[in-house]
Design brief:
By secondary structure, the protein is mainly alpha-helical. The protein contains six helices and two strands. Helix 1 runs parallel beside helix 6, helix 3 runs parallel beside helix 5 and helix 3 packs antiparallel against helix 6. The two termini are 30 Å apart.
Length: 173
């Protein structure tokens, strides 16, 4: 049986809310949008790179965002001593590049696990929580991470729009 990316229902964002719930709602909306752009596609379609000369694929974007969720929320903000999932010093773009034999069903399960773990890792931290990163000379706040992640998803969801349109013509939102 062929696996297809599951359908996704996107949650509306609140128009009025306190800062943390507003940031979380927009982050969740962008997370859902990436998966929504993949919905119904099979492994071959998810691995396809239809925007030559770019090597981007929807599967690569899902793997990349798993890596970014882990990196910013769990490793950086929460200080968890974790390795990266797909990337290494010798292969810094493994999330995007190593997809020829990657299992999309597994990648989606990893993505969902990383999102849940990211949310749990920072749930008790205030937005003003600060941390430093190796090789950086400034501190970051958790608030910055939320805004950055919303920006990161927004940029990559734009890529996902173009990829999906080239794969099967589907457009929207």
């Amino acid at each position: 049986m062929t696996w297809n990316a599951p359908e996704v229902e996107r949650t509306p964002t609140p128009l009025v809310a306190d800062e943390r719930p507003m940031l979380q709602a927009w982050l969740d909306r962008h997370r859902e949008t990436l998966l929504w752009k993949c919905a119904g596609l099979d492994a071959e379609q998810l691995r396809s790179r239809p925007l030559a000369p770019s090597g981007l694929s929807l599967l690569g974007l899902v793997r990349h965002m798993s890596e970014v969720e882990r990196g910013w929320f769990r490793i950086a903000a929460a200080g968890a001593p974790l390795d990266y999932l797909y990337c290494s010093n010798g292969n810094p773009d493994g999330d995007f590049d190593d997809i020829a034999d990657a299992d999309p069903e597994d990648a989606f399960a990893v993505y969902h696990r990383e999102v849940r773990a990211a949310d749990a890792a920072v749930a008790a931290l205030p937005l003003d929580h600060t941390f430093s990163r190796p090789l950086r000379t400034t501190d970051f706040s958790l608030r910055w991470v939320y805004v950055h992640m919303i920006e990161e998803y927004a940029r990559h969801n734009g890529h996902a729009d173009l990829l999906r349109e080239r794969i099967d013509g589907r457009t929207g939102d």
